[in-house]
């Protein structure tokens, strides 16, 4: 969806959104920014972290309340690679660098002097 959203002009996006989600209020539509929405961008930006990434395909939300469109979007979602999923969850923690203390071996035993 991000690729399509970036290629379409604003007036086309508005018309498609109004068709796909007719009950959506104008104030609930926000400008899209795509900065950290790929696996490589997340790994590049958080290089000092251990990262676990999980892609997930949510139930289609843009189907205009029509069952046929819902099933087409769902079928499409099952065919595309995981990198094109609608949701990417990132779980991160800082990498832990263990620095040995002076006079202590890696096995935790004190050195004989």
In percent, how helical is the residue content?
25-40%
H-E string? HHHEHE
Number of domains: 1
The 3D shape can be described as elongated
Q: Find the count of extended strands (DSSP E, 2+ residues).
A: 2
Radius of gyration: 23 Å
- What would the average pLDDT be, to the nearest integer? 76
Element layout with pairings:
Layout (H helix, E strand, L loop, with lengths): L1 H6 L2 H11 L18 H7 L3 E8 L10 H13 L7 E8 L19
Antiparallel strand pairs: 1-2
Description:
The termini are far apart. The chain is an alpha+beta fold and 113 residues long. 33% of the residues lie in helices and 14% in strands. The protein contains four helices and two strands. The protein has a two-stranded antiparallel ribbon with strand order 1-2. It has one domain. The protein is elongated. The mean pLDDT is 76.
Keywords:
single chain; 113 residues; alpha+beta; two-stranded antiparallel ribbon; 33% helix
């Amino acid at each position: 969806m991000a690729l399509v959203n970036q290629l379409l002009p604003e007036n086309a996006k508005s018309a498609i959104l109004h068709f796909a989600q007719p009950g959506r209020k104008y104030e609930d539509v926000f400008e899209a920014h795509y900065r950290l929405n790929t696996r490589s961008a997340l790994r590049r930006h958080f290089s000092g972290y251990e990262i676990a990434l999980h892609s997930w395909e949510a139930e289609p939300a843009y189907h205009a309340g029509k069952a046929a469109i819902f099933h087409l979007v769902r079928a499409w979602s099952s065919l595309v690679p995981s990198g094109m999923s609608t949701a990417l969850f990132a779980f991160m923690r800082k990498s832990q660098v263990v620095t040995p203390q002076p006079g202590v071996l890696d096995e935790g035993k004190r050195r004989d002097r």
